[in-house]
Amino acid sequence: MTELVAELLVPFSYNYMLKAMWVSALVGGVCAFLSAYLMLKGWSLMGDALAHSIVPGVAAAYILGAPFAIGAFFAGILASLGMNFVKQQTRLREDAVIGLVFTTLFALGLLMASIWPTAVSIQTIVLGNILAIADEDVVQVAAIAGVSLAIMALIWKDLMVTFFDESHARSIGLNTTLLKVIFFTLLSACTVAALQTVGACLVIAMVVTPGATAYLLTDRFGRLIIISVALGVSTSFVGAYVSYFLDGATGGVIVTLQTLLFLVAFYFAPKHGLIAARRRRLAATEAAA
Amino acid sequence: MNAPVEAARAASTAYGASIAIRNLSVTYSNGFTAVRDASFALDPGTICALVGVNGSGKSTIFKAIMGFVKPSAGEVRLCGFPVDEALKKNIVAYVPQSEDVDWNFPVLVETVVMMGRYGHMNFLRMPSRADRYKVDEALERVGMSAYRDRQIGELSGGQKKRVFLARSLAQEGRIILLDEPFTGIDVKTEAAIIGLLRELRAAGHLMLVSTHNLGSVPDFCDRVVLLNRTVLAAGPTAEVFTQDNLERAFGGVLRNFKLGGRALHDDDDARHVTVLTDDERPLVFYGDRTRQGSDGH
Ligand SMILES: Nc1ncnc2c1ncn2[C@@H]1O[C@H](COP(=O)(O)OP(=O)(O)OP(=O)(O)O)[C@@H](O)[C@H]1O
Ligand SMILES: [Mg+2]
């Protein structure tokens, strides 16, 4: 028994594991915060697009020896601008525009990685590997996530009004354009951070699933954010912990945990869950009979 | 008029709850000019109807007042300020068209009304006791207190309208814009909303209401702006809301019934009745006097 406990506590005795766990938790929390908004506006795929578009930026940063976050960040901004430009100049729908821009940039990233194969391990970008994260990357990721979290905590209500009813937001004197720019800048930055923990393929889950789960559990936006962040933090922390025993694949574990919790909410949520709905329908038919 | 009402009116006249639109033209990015050279001015303590066919530019005028579209010529002044400045001062409240609201958004009725108070709070938007009181009061006034914990999608059309009206009450904007507040609501709710607008008028607010509900315009609007991509006529209801002007504004679109002589009554009275209707409540002209059909179609 004590042996089992000792075994379970092993991850906490390694510095790199401790680092991985709290960095994951921080990133998971801030991504979950953003997910509360993305999901509501039907912008969920934007997170995915950004994550993939960032790949060439990261590759370029490695090649030039610059901090990866800078390359990623510029690629993210480039992607947002590209999407906006194509959308304004054509009649294409949003999904087509997003698809066009992100696959183009992703392909460019793969191309760069195959031309300069030693410069960058594309697998690190696509799959992420928090367990092997370098110290200077920890600083970058923690700074991005920490600052984003602080900004979101300050402006969450203004963003809520802006996304709910932009005309009203303007009528109370909010600068809605600035707020949206801030939001998407934070999203780009946090996608970069999440790249390190779960990789480009799974970032989408980090910025959708916690918000979607919380949406099933409450009708109050404030609570939705709290639930979402709690889910993001706990699944990311536990995911990093569990991945020690599974030898890597942190992203896979984190996202699997998040999906499991979503399924639980999907069935058992007190108001919007499947079982609750069935129970209400049953009660209604009985009352009618 | 009693003293408190006069005082309230004087107080807000001091602020000058006014709208002045001078030679306004709005051209959309596709090159279409939706409004050309429109001018009108409104004073505090007024309910003004904005009337015109679909596509005549009513919503465009609202967008210009809210600063969503930049005028290609002319200007909009609210209480004497340019639009951006007026918005920063929390002068304008806006009651949106129902189609423009995301009813699945996870917010409760009371949260929506509280949003009206955000402009009065510090940047963290922490409600004070006064803010909570104003929200309670606004919900009470529109008769929605019992529904304060509902998610906004779980309401009927008329209840939804009242929630957004409550928000504009809580906001205490001196200018209130209402985009088609009467579509899809029953006569009782309509009467309640009109009653509320009258109270606000007595308190010195200025309301601009776009509506297709011609029948009730003479009932509660002191002024009318007739629109068809420019201002056809603007002024006191009695002068502007005439059969001639309406026919000019609506062209062939308006349904127009003329009943007279023996079709109407069994005597030789030569007077006739004209019924004008857009899509909702009809407007009835009896002989040459203006009357409105207050009991529906
Ligand atoms: N974003 C836009 N881009 C281009 N043209 C537009 C845009 N919005 C509106 N229009 C055009 O401007 C004209 C005025 O539109 P507006 O929405 O102001 O009409 P409205 O009077 O509110 O009509 P309704 O009674 O149907 O609400 C219409 O012909 C419309 O096609
Ligand atoms: Mg309109």
Describe the structure.
The complex is a heterodimer of chains A (289) and B (297). By secondary structure, chain A is an all-alpha fold. Chain A contains 15 helices and no strands. Chain A has helices at residues 2-13, 15-40, 44-53, 55-64, 68-89, 94-115, 122-127, 135-164, 166-171, 176-198, 203-206, 209-217, 221-245, 250-268, 274-288. The mean pLDDT of chain A is 86. Chain B is of the alpha/beta class. Chain B is 32% helix and 26% strand. Chain B has 10 helices and 14 strands. Chain B has a 6-stranded mixed β-sheet, with helices on both faces. In chain B, strands 2-1-4-5 form a 4-stranded antiparallel β-sheet. In chain B, strand 9 and strand 10 form a beta hairpin. Chain B is globular. Chains A and B meet through helix 8 and helix 9 of A and strand 6 and helix 4 of B. Bound molecules: adenosine-5'-triphosphate and magnesium ion. Magnesium ion (MG) is lined by residues 58-59 of chain B. Adenosine-5'-triphosphate (ATP) binds next to helix 2 of chain B.
Keywords:
heterodimer, A: 289 residues, mainly alpha, 15 helices, B: 297 residues, alpha/beta, four-stranded antiparallel β-sheet, 14 strands, 26% strand, disordered C terminus, binds adenosine-5'-triphosphate, binds magnesium ion
Show unreliable segments of chain A.
none
Mean pLDDT of chain A: 86
Q: What small molecules accompany the polymer chains?
A: adenosine-5'-triphosphate, magnesium ion
Q: How would you classify the helix and strand content of chain A by structural class? A: mainly alpha
Number of distinct beta strands of chain A: 0
Oligomer, anyone? Answer: heterodimer
Helices and strands of chain B, in order, run as HEEEHEEHEHHHEHEHEEHHEEEE
Stretches of chain B where pLDDT is under 50 for at least 5 consecutive residues are: 1-14, 289-297
As a percent range, the share of helical residues of chain A equals over 70%
Name the biggest interface. Answer: A-B, 22 and 32 residues
